[in-house]
Design a protein that fits this description.
single chain; mainly alpha; flat
Length: 467
């Protein structure tokens, strides 16, 4: 089964085949693009197409996010190929585009594998560059046609790989994993193809083939956002009385209808979700192999064999779910906190956010390092969370199991309850005291609209009057 598995996941051959069309597309777009300033010979062409405005771009955000999703899937496939090659299941000649019969000995060295892996990643990035260039180019019709053809090529490649992997493998579980592995990549290429069709239709509708876009000093949604902040408040707004009305008002106050996330934040969040998906998918075969290892070390005559296996499966699944859910929550909090920080900067409160970054080049370098840090942080966060939950869960689950087997669970629970009763009662009395003071000893609120018994405005007035 190893040979069929290697043939189904091998993506390096397709990357090799895609180098020529990617270079042709990039060269064509370069000769169509005009330079801002002519070169020494006085020519305005060719000019390299800027892939995207990564710091402050707001246009075609989801198209760029789909492009990043596609390149993430291709790069992960390259890394998975290298892992399979280094594990010894297949020869390095079939998985590495730079290794042939003449230098196969050199490719077995660890330092050479590292350099070749980086080279493969650069080639994969070159192959995926036309997706970005077709979106950015000002020649919209040419970019739409090239993007449609190139996205369709990769879509056919991945669909063919999925069908071949399912047909070639006798193990249905492995075939299902192969299908799930390519699940995020295929919608990315479908979305890019549909976006190219829509761009070609808009060129036909507007009779515009070339769009010379200028970089505005302030984009339109930022102007609308500032106008919304300075808009006068309605005097007919009533104070919320019920909990649901208070919750609605709180959510409405946190929403900024004209705020728009930049392209890089949308792309980073999208790539993080794809990486989380691949990490969760990787935990499944690792768990299957670990389960087989546990079964191998357990004796068949062990009466609690099925119980131990069930506890292991429960701990592994629980740790995986907690790790994935916590990582997804972190991505959501990352987007929310970014929005809040940008709003604070708009308001002029940037001293605490830019602490330690006094120069412009430091801010630029930190902005460029942000995507790599975020993706690495989400991967290590998922691994650490999974490991911590797995270790703690295994200790608790197997501890309870063996204590119950030795008839010591009841006495241990009673001793633990007696030990924890003292701090629990102390903490309970502390908060009960605060509740009694709030209910019986505090004077009524100065105004019904105040959040507490002593409003902030009253405190500021008293302080101002005193001094």
């Amino acid at each position: 089964m190893s040979s069929s598995f290697a043939d189904s996941v091998n993506i390096t051959h397709y990357i090799t085949y895609a180098i020529a069309p990617s270079v042709i597309i990039l060269t064509l777009l370069a000769f169509l693009q005009n330079r801002r300033q002519p070169n020494k010979c006085g020519y305005h062409k060719p000019s390299l197409v800027v892939p995207m405005r990564f710091l402050d771009g707001y246009e075609d955000r989801w198209a760029y996010a789909l492009s990043f999703g596609a390149i993430t899937g291709v790069l992960i496939s390259v890394f998975m190929n290298s892992f399979i090659s280094s594990s010894g299941e297949v020869s390095s000649d079939s998985t590495n585009m730079f290794c042939g019969q003449s230098n196969s000995t050199l490719c077995r060295e660890i330092w050479a594998k590292t350099l070749l892996l980086q080279a493969q990643a650069l080639v994969a990035s070159l192959v995926c560059a036309p997706h970005f260039a077709c979106i950015t180019t000002s020649h919209r019709l040419v970019g739409a046609v090239c993007g449609l053809l190139y996205s369709t090529f990769w879509l056919v490649v991945y669909m063919q790989g999925v069908v071949a992997s399912i047909r070639a493998m006798s193990d249905k579980t492995v075939g299902a994993l192969m299908l799930l592995r390519d699940l995020p990549i295929i919608p990315c290429f479908i979305g890019l193809a549909l976006r190219s069709v829509w761009a070609a239709y808009m060129c036909y509708k507007t009779r515009t083939l070339v769009v010379e876009s200028e970089e505005p000093l302030v984009v339109d949604h930022q102007v609308k956002h500032v106008k919304a902040l300075f808009a006068p408040l309605s005097k007919d707004v009533q104070h919320p009385t019920t909990l649901l009305e208070k919750l609605k008002r709180k959510v409405r106050s946190q929403l900024y209808p004209f705020f728009k996330l930049p392209t890089r934040i949308v792309s980073i969040a999208f790539v993080q979700l794809i990486v989380i998906y691949y990490a969760a998918l990787t935990l499944t075969p690792i768990g299957v192999e670990t389960r087989r290892l546990v079964i191998f070390f357990l004796s068949e005559n062990t009466s609690e064999r099925n119980t131990i296996i069930a506890i292991f499966e429960g701990v592994w699944i629980t740790a995986s779910l907690i790790g994935v859910i916590s990582s997804v929550i972190y991505v959501i909090l990352f987007v929310i906190n970014y929005r809040h920080n940008v709003i604070y900067i708009y308001k002029g409160m940037k001293s605490s956010l830019m602490e330690g970054s006094s120069t412009a080049h430091k801010l630029m370098a930190q902005s460029l390092r942000l995507p790599g840090y975020q993706i690495a942080y989400i991967v290590w966060g998922l691994v650490v969370m999974f490991g911590a939950v797995a270790v703690i869960g295994a200790i608790l689950a197997f501890g309870i199991f063996f204590l119950a087997k030795l008839n010591l669970l009841t006495s241990v629970l009673q001793s633990l309850a007696q030990t924890l009763s003292v701090p629990a009662i102390t903490i309970g009395l502390f908060y009960l005291q605060v509740l009694f003071v709030r209910m019986f000893l505090m004077q009524p609120k100065l105004h019904p609209e105040d959040k507490g018994h002593l409003s902030t405005s009253t405190t500021e007035t008293a302080t101002t009057t005193r001094y």
